[in-house]
C-alpha cells in the first residue's frame, strides 16, 4: 500500500496516518512512515520518541546536467540503505523517516528535500508499504511530496472550510491525473456527516472516523492513540479504513 | 494597527483573525482582513458564506490575468478584488493555488 494523507491543517492527517501505519505494521507488513510536514506531528501519533532526525545533507551529492544543478543519492547509497541507516525504528516494527523541521525563515531545505525524493524514487516498488503525512493545506508541492503515493486520502471534517479545502485538493489532484483520490470523513458527529463529505468534495468516501475524545486525550498526553487507548472507536474506524483500502488499491 | 496571526495548522489562526477583525470593525475601526493562506477560507470564518468565499477573485489572479494595471494602488486592489463581510470588514485574498505546478517546496 502506498498512501499519502492530505487535508486542511487540523483535519486529522497525523492522528490518522500514525494509527493507520501502526495497524498495517502490526498486520505484518514492512511499513515506511514518512513525515514531509515541516511542522511535524506524526512522531507523536506514531509513538516514536520525538526525534529531529531527517536525512543528512550528505545523503545526496550535487552534479551538473545541462548547466543545471541536480542532486542524486551519494555514491554507494541506495533508497533501501538510506531507510536502514536513517529511518528511526518505531513500535510494531514501523520505520519512520522525517523530512526535518523547518529551521527558521531562511532554512535551505533543498538538500533534504532532494534526498527525500531520491530515497523514495529508489525504494523497491512492492517490498514496502508507505504511509505519508503531507503538509496541511493545498500548498503547491503536495504532489511533489506525494509522488510515491498510489492513493491520496483527503482527510475532511464536516465543516465548510474543511470541505472547501477537500474540494480544492480533489481538483488539484484530478488536474494532475493522480492515481486514486479518496476522502476520509473525520470527526464525524452526525449520521449524515459522511454524506456531507461526499457531496461537498465530490470524492468517494473510503470510510468515516467518529469524533472521539480519546484522540484528543492521547494528543494531550503526547502518546500514540494505539498505546493510550487501543480500544478507542477511532482505532476501530482506522482498522476499517485499512481493510477498505486493501480491497481498493490494486495489487501491482 | 497591523496584526498578523500565525501558528500551526488547525490551531485557530483563521478563527482568531476573523473574530479580531469583526471586533475591531464593530468598535468603529476601518478593518481590512487579508487572507494570506494559499488555501484561503477566512471568508467562511468572517461569515461571508461558502459560495462568496470560493468565488473571491484573488488579487494575484486578477493581476496575472492582466485585468489590472500593475501600477494601481493597494487601496485600489482591495477595492476591486475584495469583498465586504459582516460588520463592514473588508476582505481580500492574497493568493490561492489553482494549479499544481512544480515549484519550490
Ligand atoms: N477555542 C476553540 N475551541 C474549539 N474549537 C476551536 C477553537 N479555535 C478553533 N477551533 C476549531 O479548530 C478548527 C481549526 O481552526 P482554524 O481553521 O481557525 O485553524 P487554522 O489555524 O486557521 O488552520 P489552517 O492552518 O488549516 O488554516 C476549526 O474547526 C475551529 O472551529
Ligand atoms: N476522530 C477524531 N476525534 C476527535 N479529535 C480528533 C480526531 N482526529 C483528530 N482529532 C484532533 O484534531 C486535532 C488535529 O489533528 P492532527 O492529526 O494533528 O491534524 P493534522 O495533522 O491534519 O494537522 C488534534 O487535536 C487531534 O487530537
Ligand atoms: Mg499534522
Ligand atoms: Mg486557517
CATH superfamily of chain A: P-loop containing nucleotide triphosphate hydrolases
The strand line-up of the biggest sheet of chain B is 1-3-2
Helix content of chain A: 25-40%
Main CATH class of chain A: Alpha Beta
The biggest sheet of chain A amounts to: 8 strands, mixed
Query: Oligomeric state of the chains?
Result: heterodimer
- Percentage of residues in helical conformation of chain B: 25-40%
Which fold name is given in CATH as the topology of chain A? Rossmann fold
Head-to-tail CA distance between termini of chain B: 32 Å
Number of beta strands of chain B? 3
Terminal Cα separation of chain A, in Å? Answer: 10 Å
Class computed from helices, strands and strand pairing of chain B: alpha+beta
Q: How many discrete structural domains of chain A?
A: 1
Tell how many strands the DSSP assignment of chain A holds. 10
Helix segment tally of chain B: 5
Per CATH, which architecture of chain A?
Answer: 3-Layer(aba) Sandwich
Low-pLDDT regions of chain B? none
Tell me the fraction of residues in β-strands of chain A, as a range: 15-25%
- Over the alpha carbons, how many angstroms does the gyration radius of chain B reach? 14 Å
Amino acid at each position: 500500500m502506498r498512501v499519502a494523507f492530505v487535508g486542511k491543517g487540523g483535519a486529522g492527517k497525523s492522528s490518522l496516518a500514525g494509527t493507520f501505519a501502526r495497524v498495517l505494521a502490526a498486520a505484518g507488513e514492512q511499513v515506511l512512515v514518512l513525515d514531509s510536514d515541516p511542522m511535524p506531528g506524526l512522531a507523536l501519533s506514531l509513538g516514536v520518541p520525538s526525534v529531529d532526525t531527517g536525512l543528512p545533507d550528505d545523503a545526496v551529492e550535487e552534479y551538473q546536467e545541462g548547466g543545471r544543478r541536480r542532486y542524486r543519492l551519494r555514491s554507494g547509497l541506495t533508497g533501501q540503505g538510506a531507510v536502514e541507516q536513517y529511518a528511526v525504528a518505531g513500535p510494531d516494527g514501523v520505520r519512520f523517516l522525517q523530512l526535518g523541521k523547518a529551521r527558521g525563515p531562511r532554512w535551505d531545505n533543498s538538500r533534504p528535500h532532494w534526498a527525500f525524493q531520491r530515497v523514495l524514487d529508489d525504494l523497491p516498488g512492492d517490498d514496502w508499504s508507505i504511509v505519508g503525512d503531507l503538509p496541511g493545506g493545498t500548498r503547491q508541492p503536495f504532489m511533489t511530496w506525494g509522488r510515491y503515493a498510489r492513493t491520496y486520502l483527503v482527510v475532511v471534517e464536516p465543516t465548510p472550510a474543511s470541505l472547501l479545502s477537500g474540494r480544492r485538493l480533489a481538483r488539484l489532484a484530478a488536474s494532475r491525473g493522480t492515481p486514486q483520490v479518496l476522502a476520509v470523513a473525520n470527526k464525524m458527529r452526525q449520521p449524515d456527516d459522511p454524506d456531507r463529505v461526499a457531496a461537498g468534495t465530490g470524492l468517494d468516501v473510503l470510510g468515516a472516523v467518529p469524533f472521539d475524545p480519546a484522540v484528543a486525550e492521547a494528543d494531550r498526553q503526547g502518546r500514540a492513540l494505539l498505546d493510550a487507548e487501543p480500544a478507542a472507536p477511532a482505532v476501530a474506524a482506522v482498522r476499517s479504513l485499512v481493510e477498505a483500502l486493501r480491497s481498493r488499491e490494486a495489487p501491482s | 494597527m497591523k496584526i498578523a496571526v500565525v501558528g500551526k495548522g488547525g490551531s485557530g489562526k483563521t478563527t482568531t483573525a476573523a473574530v479580531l477583525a469583526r471586533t475591531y470593525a464593530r468598535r468603529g475601526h476601518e478593518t481590512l482582513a487579508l487572507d494570506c493562506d494559499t488555501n484561503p477560507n477566512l471568508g467562511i470564518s468572517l461569515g461571508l458564506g461558502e459560495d462568496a468565499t470560493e468565488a473571491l477573485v484573488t488579487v494575484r489572479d486578477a493581476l496575472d490575468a492582466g485585468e489590472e494595471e500593475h501600477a494601481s494602488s493597494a487601496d485600489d486592489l482591495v477595492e476591486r478584488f475584495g469583498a465586504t463581510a459582516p460588520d463592514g470588514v473588508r476582505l481580500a485574498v492574497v493568493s490561492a493555488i489553482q494549479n499544481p505546478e512544480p515549484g519550490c517546496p
